[in-house]
Amino acid sequence: MTGGSRGIGRAIAIGLAREGADVCIGYSSSEKEAAEVVREVQGLGRKGYMVRVDQANLDEAVPFAERCISLLGGVDVLVNNAGICPFKPFFEIDKDLLVKVMNVNFLSHFLITQVVARHMVSHGVRGRILMISSISAHVGGLLQTHYTPTKSALNGLVHSLAIALGPHGILVNSLEPGTIVTDINREDLSDQEKRRYMEKRTVLGRLGDPEDMVGPALFLLSDENTYTTGTSLLSDGGMLVNLQ
């Protein structure tokens, strides 16, 4: 799993361990938080590992995937969760920031998935691959012109990967969280007026918690999912449909 030290990634990693999975998480700077996730996974009686990876540097993507496969002794589930969204006006986004967001949110995941899928195919593993996309794949954001295209790209990748890997029994899907309170948007949501507005945009009257994403993710990754592939599951508290 990429981006497994905090937020949605942490919640899914621990959820997988509760269901009996050994887990290897990637992290970039949150070493303390990653170690805490590993301890929690091990406390559930499962094996837990952490591997540092800077996904902005594409040269680190393949070694990261290979290291996780080696530590676990094989992989049958992949969750691509890592993502960044440094909120910035369109005219202030320079090439370096654009490339960094594209690398972390999309290109590194392409390369990591390629390694893991090749392992699955070569070992006859009828695995599950999940991309953590976003409601932003469907709607825009004033300060997210570098971010929203990466989430649309993940969904497009899912469509083609489902076709490429389906003959091998590998199911590929994406999960699209709505506004989930995590480190990625905590500062943005510190504006109480904006937070209240975002809460009212949902039909449930609240923003999401990382734990809200665990159930949908576990279904898509589980053996109970036998026929769902190439699709996106929107889990947004009814935000997208709430026009008025």
Automatic annotation (TrEMBL):
Species classification: Archaea, Methanobacteriati, Thermoplasmatota, Thermoplasmata, Thermoplasmatales
GO molecular function, one term: oxidoreductase activity, acting on the CH-OH group of donors, NAD or NADP as acceptor
The family this protein is said to belong to: Belongs to the short-chain dehydrogenases/reductases (SDR) family.
Pfam families reported for this sequence: adh_short_C2
Protein name, UniProt field: Glucose-1-dehydrogenase
BP GO annotations: fatty acid biosynthetic process; rhamnose catabolic process
Alphabetic keyword roster: NADP, Oxidoreductase, Rhamnose metabolism
InterPro entries xrefs: NAD(P)-bd_dom_sf, SDR_fam
CDD domains noted in UniProt: SDR_c
